[in-house]
Request: fold
Amino acid sequence: MSTEAASGPLPRKEKALTIGAVVKQLEREFPDISISKIRYLEDQKLLSPRRTPGGYRLYGPGDVDRLRTILRLQRDEFLQLRVIRQELAAGLAEAETPPVPEARGPRRATVALRGPGSLYRLDDVLEDTGADQSLVKELEDYGVIKGERRDGEQLYDDTEREIIRAVTELKRYGVGGRNLRVFRTSADREAALLEQILAPALRSRNPERRKEAVEALENLAAIASHLKHLLLIRDLRKLAR
Reply:
C-alpha cells in the first residue's frame, strides 16, 4: 500500500493572493478595508507578505487570517495598533476567527473615481437603505448629499447611498438633518486640509504620480478617520464615568 493511500491524499497548496484579491475576499466582512489600509498596516510592521521578484505583494492563508484578526480587533475591540501588535505576539493570530456574516453591510467607500454603472435611482436607494423620501430631501437641502440629475431623474452614487443609510440609523436616535451640519463642516475642513497636503501631486500631468497621490489621499483619509474616532471615544468615555 502506498504512503498516499495509507494517509490520504496530500492537502492542496492554497494559492497566494494579490493585495487586490485580499481586499475583495474581506470587503464583505470589513466594508472599510482598502489597498491603502493594508499597506498602512504593513508599514506599521503588522503584516509581512512575501514579494515576487517584481515587487508585488503575495498573501498566503496565514497572512489573510492575520489581517482578519487585526481588522476584527480594530472594529470590535477598538484596540490601538500598538496593543494589537502585542496581542499578535502573544499568539492571538492563531485564535479562531468568526465566520463572515451573511447579512449585507454597507459598501466600502473609496476616494478613487467611480466607474460607470454606479449610480442608483431614488426608489432603489430608499428600498435598500430603509430611508424615507423626506429624509433624502432633507439631506439634499442641507448639502449633505447632492446626487446627479440625468434625463429628468435624480441619481445617487455608492457613497451617497451609504450616507443615507448611516443617517437613517442616526435618525432612530433623534438626530435630524439640521444636526448633520456638524458632520458636514468637519468633513469639509478635513478634506480641505488633505487637499492642501497633496494638491500638487493630485494635479500632476503624470498619471502614475496622480495614481500614487490618490492612494496616499486614501491612506491619509483612513488615518484621519481613525484619529477622529479615537478622539471621539476619548471624549465620550467622560460621559460614562
